[in-house]
Backbone:
């Protein structure tokens, strides 16, 4: 998103737009649901529940990280992905903002 397109909007609105974008694909919804239930996942986990290629999973994860819903670490050469503690609050904030 170019600077001229986001300039007139408050930071909170921009953050909500990132969250909405992250929720805008069935694979990312599937990945988030898994993390809400299990708290941790790997690339292999996401590949098995979505049947998507590793490179596609990586792009989807970047959207979730960009929206501040997920974070990652790398242990023993494998990426681990976790739901951020505030993820449900951010999603709820989006819903409430859209309602008003």
Residues:
């Amino acid at each position: 998103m170019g600077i001229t397109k986001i300039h007139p909007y408050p930071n909170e609105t921009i953050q909500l737009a990132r969250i909405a974008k992250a929720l805008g694909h069935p694979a990312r919804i599937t990945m988030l649901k898994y993390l809400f239930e299990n708290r941790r996942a790997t690339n292999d986990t996401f590949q098995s529940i979505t049947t998507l290629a590793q490179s596609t999973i990586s792009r989807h994860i970047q959207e979730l990280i960009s929206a501040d819903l997920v974070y990652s670490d790398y242990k023993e050469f494998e990426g681990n992905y976790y739901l951020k503690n505030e993820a449900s609050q951010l999603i709820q904030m989006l819903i409430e903002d859209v309602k008003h």
Notes: The first helix runs from residue 3 to 6. The chain has one domain: 3-99.
